[in-house]
Amino acid sequence: MGLTQMREQDPNSLFGMGNPLLDISAEVDKDFLDKFGLKPNNAILADESHKALFEELIGKFPAEYHAGGATQNSIRVAQWMIQKPEKVGTFFGCIGKDKFGDILKKKALEGKVDAHYYEQEEEPTGTCAVCITGDKRSLVANLAAANAYKKDKHLDLEENWALVEKAKVYYIAGFFLTVSLESILKVAKHAAENNKVFCLNLAAPFISQFFKDGLMQVMPYVDVLFGNETEAAEFGKAQEFETEDVEELAKKAQALPKENTKRPRVVVFTQGKENTIVAQNTFPVLKIDPKDIVDTNGAGDAFVGGFLSQLVQEKPLERSVEAGHYSANVVIRRSGCTFPEKPEFH
């Protein structure tokens, strides 16, 4: 076991690519959601109508800043769960040369993640308004720089692609489909051709609704598909699965055509405090007293991070789900996708 164990834990063995965003997080009221047409537990992209939202969020409510962006969160959590060696997780994404970009760089460094940002000056670093009501969160992402990621300017560069080749497990949240489908496909094909593990997250209902074509171009390469019950339902609708049963949805997603037949597809649908469905099993989540929940923002990302931390160590599926439940349980007790210095996961 000695040698393989060393190899399993190599730096850069987990690769993530996505939208690095600085989360601006605040507790708001229902009036605020209504004013900007937001739904609890949803995620959307900002448009013209949300210009005032960011200013109002910072002006009216005590806001906190956290390193965010779904994929980056998951890579940070995975690295936290693994602890040593450092820089097991690599992250690619685009930021601006500004204050918010500096904060993201600092947070990546603190989290021992090997972040290689494509830095450009045209667009400012992306932000995400995290509007919290009770134990629900509504996300409004202003992608800005995150939307300016370029395959030819970053992913294709020899030194960057070498980092992709070092990885064994790849994770990309569906949000990145709105930015660079060609980058996702290049990584996904590399994974399939080399029998490595490619993971994708359905990310938000609007991805299945409006970016279905891109999603279905990537789907044949997906070895592990993540989503929550709302995203699963929307995916099922878009695919005309004709069921709302989450277990059935998972089975149908699992059965979609697959490129690398050496690995059966695993589908993992979380349902908040209800059981997590893994095609073909269910796993109970860790119980938590509702009054201990501070903020569910980042819970899904944390679940994926915990899951990936075990997957990259080639642990059994049950162990990955357990780790996912553990890290989500830690993160929802805190504000933002943050965590204590060390995990207590044994």
TrEMBL record:
Pathway listed: Purine metabolism; AMP biosynthesis via salvage pathway; AMP from adenosine: step 1/1
A GO MF annotation of the entry reads: ATP binding
Origin: domain of life: Eukaryota
What does it catalyze?
adenosine + ATP = AMP + ADP + H(+)
Keywords in alphabetical order: ATP-binding, Kinase, Magnesium, Metal-binding, Nucleotide-binding, Nucleus, Phosphoprotein, Purine salvage, Transferase
Cofactor(s) named in the record: Mg(2+)
Residue numbers annotated as active site: D301
Q: What is the free-text note on the cofactor?
A: Binds 3 Mg(2+) ions per subunit.
Task: Report domain Carbohydrate kinase PfkB positions.
Answer: 32-340
**What sort of enzyme, by top EC class, is this?**
transferase
Query: What GO terms in the biological process aspect are recorded for it?
Result: AMP salvage; purine nucleobase metabolic process; purine ribonucleoside salvage
Q: What does the UniProt entry say about where the protein is found?
A: Nucleus
Per the UniProt record, which EC number(s) apply here? Answer: 2.7.1.20
InterPro entries per the record?
A: Adenokinase, Carboh/pur_kinase_PfkB_CS, PfkB_dom, Ribokinase-like
Q: Which residues form a coiled coil?
A: none
Is Transferase there in the keyword field?
yes
Q: How does it assemble?
A: Monomer.
The task this protein performs is described as: Catalyzes the phosphorylation of the purine nucleoside adenosine at the 5' position in an ATP-dependent manner. Serves as a potential regulator of concentrations of extracellular adenosine and intracellular adenine nucleotides.
What family does this belong to? Belongs to the carbohydrate kinase PfkB family.
Q: Which PANTHER family match?
A: ADENOSINE KINASE
Q: What is this protein called?
A: Adenosine kinase
Q: What is the source species?
A: Gadus morhua (Atlantic cod)
Its lineage reads: Eukaryota, Metazoa, Chordata, Craniata, Vertebrata
